[in-house]
Prior knowledge:
The protein is of the alpha+beta class. The chain has two domains: about 5-70; about 90-325, no CATH class. The chain contains twelve helices and eleven strands. The protein has helices spanning about 5-15, 25-35, 40-55, 100-125, 170-175, 200-210, 225-240, 250-255, 260-265, 270-275, 295-305, 305-320, and strands at about 60, 70, 125-130, 150-155, 160, 165, 185-190, 215-220, 245, 280-285, 320-325. It has a six-stranded mixed β-sheet, with helices on both faces. It has a three-stranded antiparallel β-sheet with strand order 5-6-11. The protein is elongated and about 75 Å long. It starts with a helix and ends in a 6-residue tail after the last strand.
Amino acid sequence: MSLRNQLSDLLPTLLPSNPADAIKGTELIRLVRLQLTGNYSDASLRYHFSIMSCDPASPIAKVEKGQGYYRRTAPVPALSGAQELVSLSQGRLDDLGGDSKAIDHALERVKKFRAIVRRFNELNSRFPFEFRNVFTAGSPLGNLWKYPEMILVDWQTGEENDEAMVLESRMLSLKQRLGLPPFRLTGARLRIQASLHGFREDFFQALSASTWTQGAELIYAAPILDEALADGLRALNAAFGVGVSSFGLDVEALDDLPRAANILNAHPKETEALLERLQFERIAAPRHRQHIEWGAMEALRRESEETASLIDWLCECIDEGKARPFPGA
C-alpha cells in the first residue's frame, strides 16, 4: 500500500477534531511511525502532510495561524441562504434527509447568525437592509446569484447622534453634482461554515449577487482555521475583490446564543455581552467601486418589491437629511 493510502487510513484515528488541540508535525510523525508499514524519511512524511492538507478529500488539515494539524471533518450541511427562506423543493437542504427537526435546528442557527450580523453592523454605524421575499419557497433558484442576503449601507456624508446620522447638506450636494452616491452599498452573503468543498460557490454567489452594488462581503459564522481554505479565499479575493470575514462562532457557540428575536430586541448591556462572544477576524478586505451599476439596480427594482423598498428608503433618508434604520427592521 502506498504511503498516501496508509496515511489516509491512519490519520483519522490520530488527529484531533478540534484545531485548538492540533498536533505538531514532529509528534504526528512519531505517532504515524508506530503504525506505518515501510521505512519513510521525516522529510517524506512532512511533504505528504503538507500536500494532503491542501486536498479537500483528505482527512488532514493544517492550522491557519500557528503550527499543527487536525482532522478535517465533514462540513455543516450547506444552506442556500442566510434565512428561513429556501424551500425543500429547491433541493438545498437535502443533506438533512428530510428530518424536520434537524432542518428547524439548522435554520434557527442561520436566523441567530443573521441577527448577530445585523446588530454588529448597526453598532458599527452601518445600516443593514435584509432581502427576504426573493428567497421564499417557490422563488427562482437563480435569485441566489442575483440578490445578497443583506445590503450594508455606509453613509459617506454624515455625523452620528443618538437617533440617526445627520447627512451633511453641502457634502451631499457636492456628491450629487458629481454623480456620486452619498452612500456605499455592500452586498453581504452569509454562511455558517466554510469548507474546501464549497467555498468557491459561496464566493462566486457573493460576487454575482453584488455586481450592482459597490462591493461584496462573504461573512462566515465559524472561524476559518484551515490554512488551505484561508489561502484559497485570499487568492479569490486578490482576483475579484470580495471581502471575507469570520465572526468566530462555531455551531456549538451558535446553539448557545439566545433566539434571534431576543438578539434583535436585547438591551444595550445584553447586546454588549453577546458581542463579547464574537472573535471577529478579517480574512481579506473588500475592494469597493465608486459607482453603483444603476442599470442592473433598475432591472432588479422592476423584478423585486424589496429592491424598490431599498431605493425608497435611501431616497427618504436623503430627502430628510438623516440616515435612519430601515422601517420595520
